[in-house]
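Ticket opened by: R.M.
Priority: normal
Category: complex prediction / small molecule

The reporter submitted a protein together with fe (iii) ion and asked that the result be attached to this ticket for the collaborator who will pick it up next week. Submitted input follows.
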Amino acid sequence: MDLLALPAFNDNYIWMFHDGVEAAVVDPGDCEPVLAALDRLKLSLAAILVTHHHQDHVGGLVGLRARFDVPVYAPATEIIPGPHLAVTGGHSVLTIGSRFDVIDVPGHTRGHIAYFHRPADTAEAPVLFCGDTLFSGGCGRLFEGTPQQMHRSLQALADLPEDTRVCCAHEYTLSNLKFAHAVEPDSAELKAYTRWCEQQRAAGLPTLPSRIATERAVNPFLRCGVATVIDAARRHGATSHDPVEVFTTLRQWKNEFQ
Ligand code: ZN
Ligand code: FE
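Result attached by the on-call engineer:
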């Protein structure tokens, strides 16, 4: 499966995967970058996957459906423009010969879902489309859900196979890593990863996809049980080492961080 991150707006990525003939896209906030890529690669569109209802993830649906009569898979409990197939945790989606398991990841929005694909060919790494739930080095803001929900959602993603390619919907990595440094200033892994991400950005390349193993090592929001992170959270108001309390404190700290 070929994976492509199509830049959109300031910092969104619309993920496209294809088999050389047909393509599917995830969270097309804008139809233009998708149409341009389909044209350039001589692909036809086979399906659209949506993770949540925000405009920067669904804004291109109408334009794409005007050109292609394709299924749109979208969260069952959110309001999504136009005809679509409502999916929720436990469902799976079959497109271009690949099966995606739907995972409920409430927190950023109430009905946010992620799509996980484990290739039959074990030489190929699994793929996760996680929208605005997990970012490299960070996580989405809690617009509709509770910290408990978001913490549980992130844990579910952290438990996926280590080599899973993590396809996030925004290029927020460097700014997230600044915060991660504030939480764990002595982490050598974090420093090495930051250098690599800086080189990618300087070369005009995405820092994504990330890997679950990388996120477990550097992302403070997946490290709420780690002593250095707990200590940092306690210095910023956490009243216990309870992982949800630590998560809540980190999320609040990051909201105010600059
Ligand atoms: Zn969003
Ligand atoms: Fe977004």
